[in-house]
Design brief:
- This protein is mainly α and 212 residues long.
- The protein has helices at 2-21, 25-32, 36-44, 54-61, 90-103, 108-115, 120-127, 133-146, 151-154, 176-211; strands at residues 79-80, 157-158.
- α2 packs across α3 (36-44).
- It is elongated.
- A two-stranded antiparallel sheet has the order 1-2.
- It is built from ten helices and two strands; from the N terminus they run ααααβαααααβα.
Length: 212
């Protein structure tokens, strides 16, 4: 039963990835040298994609294998520590929402009422990174409930890693490294100010005692 549920979940992810890629079942099948009915069976969870075929399927859909197939040996995607909502780029926020929605096999129309948004287009705008900070702050708790996730996942920022064979590390998402540096500097400054305030208070009390 568990294996069947896993195949069904993988099928939903496979279908979602195909739709996002703008491909039909026939186009995917042609690229893989398969019959389109085979792709349909994959998406319905009736039969699994063989392990030897997963890389080819992922390449056609232009996604990493881990977006569809997860095993006990999978390593979670590496992220920088979750940032405050104000520092998470809107496009990263939207991409995290879209990724989780697709993992659940949920259509934008299903998510809309859960977020109390007026139109499906509003969901598309959110996932495309075209939303205000005020709206994202309002939607965050609703997203956590609707997508059965955590604030940390919605606010996580992927750490860019180079493909195999490439030694040069690509740049992190625009502004992220700078923001992280600013946050860290601010934390250090706050610690120093607290220490300075504590020492000043202690010195003041000492002087007051002497005057008395």
């Amino acid at each position: 039963m568990r294996e069947r549920e896993q195949r069904t979940e993988e099928g939903r992810r496979l279908k979602a990835a195909r739709i996002v890629a703008g491909l039909s079942q026939q186009e995917v099948a042609k690229s893989l040298g398969k019959h389109w009915k085979t792709v349909g069976r994959w998406e319905r969870g009736e039969s699994p994609v063989q392990a030897s075929e997963r890389r080819a399927v992922a390449a056609v859909l232009r996604i990493p294998e881990s977006d569809v197939w997860q095993t006990e040996h999978d390593v979670p995607r590496e992220t920088v520590p979750p940032l405050p909502l104000e520092l998470v780029p809107p496009k990263v926020f939207g991409a995290n929402v879209e990724r989780r929605r697709l993992q659940l096999g949920m259509a934008p129309g299903e998510l809309r009422p859960k977020l109390k948004l007026p139109t499906v287009e509003s969901v598309a705008q959110l996932e495309a990174g075209r939303s205000t900070l005020a709206l994202r702050r309002e939607l965050l708790p609703r997203l956590v409930r609707a997508l059965k996730t955590t604030p940390e996942e919605i606010l996580s920022v992927p750490r860019v890693t180079p493909p195999r064979g490439v030694s040069e590390t690509p740049p992190a998402p625009e502004g992220v490294e700078t923001l992280m540096s600013i946050v860290e500097d601010a934390r250090r400054l706050a610690d120093r100010l607290l220490l300075y305030a504590a020492r000043t208070k202690e010195a003041t009390q000492t002087l007051s005692g002497r005057d008395a």
